[in-house]
Design goal:
homodimer, alpha+beta, Arc Repressor Mutant, subunit A, SH3 type barrels, six-stranded antiparallel beta sheet, two-stranded antiparallel sheet, 41% helix, globular, binds manganese (II) ion, DNA-binding
Chain lengths: 220, 220
DNA sequence: TTTATAAGTTTGACTACTCAAACTTATTTG
DNA sequence: CAAATAAGTTTGAGTAGTCAAACTTATAAA
């Protein structure tokens, strides 16, 4: 079995590969993501390569092998089911659960995970709208487009928040922008680099294009 | 904060001190409990002493300091609340939850633990009848006497199973001897080294004195 | 009271993980 | 294209945790 540290690296590599257009994870960003120096990340990558979890040509980007991808999806499944439990059953704050799940995800046996999943009614997404991979390792990553991609007047439904940063999540929640909420694109200002949404009548929120890019929504 | 390993040692020392009449934990038994060699246990004890968690005179038994005792009760509280959750909410098997809680107990933040405790209705004992220490570190260890201490004809209520061994727990559960169950002492045979209980009408169980000593019960 | 044995300690070596700092290769940019 | 800079690697050292085996001290038996 992979250690807690290995699981964290693999999950981070999965996320980074998904984000980068080249489909590869860079060492510096990986190091930053897991909170270590780049030298440490390099040596860990070597170990992961020896474990057949990643492919890492020298002086180039890291990618997951099929086995590595499977490990990542397992960890992600655990992480998101736990987050769902913490929010929907224990009523913990939406913006706090990530750190907690970060530790708990390494301590759940398959059986307990399945019981938890059953108890929660087999949810398909977590509180942030992140899709929960199936037990067999399948996941539908793309649902919706970035808020910044819609034009003025469009009515959309928030489906996912891509950033796990606590303060950003806190701000998003404060603005009433949880997954499932419907908003109207009120104004788009390329000069001001901002976008304004109407959440309810009389309540509008202005976001930078950058922030709006981290919130996914779909039509209707 | 204490590492996972440190927490495991401290908890084991707490349990061993409670069991031994001298109130001290031996290195060999501690090593066995934690699953390491005695040399490893010795070197860990040194670290624990440096951390002011234990007192360990050379070539003699280990005892917890006040700080160490506090750590032990914190871990025990987490362990037992988790076990309660796994059994009463997720319907996991009574005899399986110990191993699971053994890992989860190191991953729960105080806030999440409190929410879980609240969700469960602030239970006072876990599924094995073990008392759950309070958040402030208080615990009532002694409730009931060993089954082997009662005489023939006595009607008692099972309150606690002292052994966490899976096969023993499985046997106990199979025999219908959970905490809360009422039984009658049917026969005591000093020669046969055994004791026979009537659980329901027509259902009786025979235990060795040794096994009966690990099951606590109280009158009525 | 000696002696065998159990309990406890020490030593040397190993894996997993980490950092700082020097170094090498790749990528920008003037 | 050459120089500057960013990205990636290597080296040396350190902590946490572990084992096997040799060793020392305490305890129980003879
Ligand atoms: Mn994690
Ligand atoms: Mn999430
Ligand atoms: Mn444990
Ligand atoms: Mn228990």
């Amino acid at each position: 079995m992979a250690t807690e540290t290995v699981e964290n690296y693999i999950k981070a590599i999965y996320v980074l590969c998904r984000e980068s257009p080249s489909g590869e994870a860079g060492v510096v960003r990986l190091a930053h993501e897991v909170g270590v120096t780049k030298g440490t990340a390099t040596s860990m990558i070597k170990r992961l390569a020896k474990l057949k979890l990643v492919k890492a040509p020298r002086y180039s980007g890291v990618t997951l092998t099929a086995i590595g991808k499977r490990v990542a999806l397992d960890v992600l499944r655990r992480h998101r089911i736990i987050e769902t439990f913490l929010v929907s059953t224990l009523n913990l704050d939406w913006s706090d659960v990530h750190e907690e799940a970060e530790r708990l995800e390494h301590a759940l046996s398959p059986r307990t995970l399945d019981r938890l999943d059953e108890f929660l009614g087999r949810p398909s997404t977590d509180p942030h709208g992140d899709p929960i991979p199936s037990a067999s390792g399948k996941v539908l990553e793309l649902r919706g487009k970035a808020l910044s991609a819609y034009v003025k007047g469009t009515k959309v439904e928030i489906v996912r928040i891509l950033d796990q940063d606590r303060s950003f999540l806190k701000f998003v929640a404060q603005s009433g922008l949880k997954p499932g909420v419907r908003v109207t694109i009120d104004a788009v200002s390329p000069q001001g680099d901002s976008i304004t949404l109407q959440v309810k009548r009389g309540q509008s929120v202005t976001l930078s294009q950058n922030a709006a890019a981290k919130i996914l929504a779909r039509l209707q």
